[in-house]
């Protein structure tokens, strides 16, 4: 391993499996010391609590934005710098599912200006959901922008898609980034050899305007729903199955009449599971929606009977 701490970015649209991927890396390398920065688009940190805690892992959060945006990039550079004097083998950054990494070169240069050679950029790994990538890439530029700046693309949940869809997905990925290594996987798993094979990368400037803006559906809108008391489990189940309009992501922890639950929903999967043992974690439900006033108002109206506040 070269001098300096390897810095690896992990991207992927909402629900593609980034946190699951990170936990699989930790399982593969129990003796390695990791620094982890988790970036959530909304102001409720959800993913950091899902990182498997262990000795030698240092987790920090950056919420309410995405790390490549000017509103948060300075804080991201400072967060990386905070790890400079820690005894870690890797610094892994889970970017928001809505990350737009076009300013990547400026970010890496900013890290280098402050820290010199303390960190070495080992590239970006992007996860795509085999079941939804083709449709999402047609309406949101961030989906393909993440792929364009990645070195390794994991076609995750490959066991849920047929051969035709997988082939089309891989062809589309390579049309966006012909130089990317594309690997099929499930549960976010890759071989230890593939991870250890990551090498230092040089980030070059690009005059690429394909990914300007957010796409035909606009910049997604996060809503945070909170309730002071326990929710009726049956009413919560009914809501997540039909929140009042299409959504990109629904995630959070809530108290119900049947105990604490973890909600984890994407455009093509719904999960509501019992959860215990998460202490000190803020309760609430984040829903990320298309920038459509009709959809937003419909979801708010549907949630009004269930939740006490919307942020």
TrEMBL record:
Domain called CobW/HypB/UreG nucleotide-binding: residue spans: 6-183
GO cellular component: cytoplasm
Superkingdom: Bacteria
Gene3D superfamilies, A to Z: P-loop containing nucleotide triphosphate hydrolases
Protein name: GTP-binding protein
Species per Swiss-Prot/TrEMBL record: Candidatus Thalassospirochaeta sargassi
């Amino acid at each position: 391993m070269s001098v300096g701490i390897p810095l690896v970015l992990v991207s992927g649209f909402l629900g593609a499996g980034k946190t699951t991927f990170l936990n699989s890396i930790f399982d593969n390398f129990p003796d390695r010391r990791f620094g982890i920065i988790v970036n959530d688009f909304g102001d409720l940190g959800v993913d950091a609590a899902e990182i498997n805690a262990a000795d030698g892992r240092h987790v920090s959060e950056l919420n309410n934005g995405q790390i490549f945006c000017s509103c948060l990039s300075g804080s991201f550079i400072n967060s990386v710098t905070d790890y400079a004097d820690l005894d870690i083998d890797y610094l892994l950054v889970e970017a928001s599912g809505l990350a737009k990494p076009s300013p990547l070169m400026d970010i890496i240069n900013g890290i280098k200006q402050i820290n010199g050679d303390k960190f070495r950029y080992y590239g970006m790994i992007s996860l795509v959901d085999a079941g939804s990538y083709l449709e999402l890439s047609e309406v949101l530029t961030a989906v393909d922008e993440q792929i364009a700046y990645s070195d390794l693309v994991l076609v995750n949940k490959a066991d849920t898609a047929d051969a035709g869809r997988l082939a089309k997905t891989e062809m589309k990925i390579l049309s966006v980034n012909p130089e990317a290594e594309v690997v099929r996987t499930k549960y976010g798993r890759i071989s230890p050899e593939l991870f250890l094979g990551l090498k230092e990368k040089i980030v070059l400037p690009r005059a690429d305007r394909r990914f300007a803006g957010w796409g035909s559906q606009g910049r997604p809108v996060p809503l945070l729903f909170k309730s002071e008391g326990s929710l009726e489990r049956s009413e919560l189940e009914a809501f997540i199955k039909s929140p009042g309009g299409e959504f990109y992501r629904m995630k959070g922890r809530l108290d119900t009449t049947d105990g604490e639950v973890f909600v984890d929903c994407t455009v093509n999967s719904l999960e509501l599971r019992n959860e215990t043992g998460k202490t000190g974690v803020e309760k609430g439900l984040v829903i990320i929606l298309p920038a459509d006033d009709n959809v937003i108002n419909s979801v708010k109206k549907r949630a009004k009977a269930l939740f006490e506040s919307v942020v």
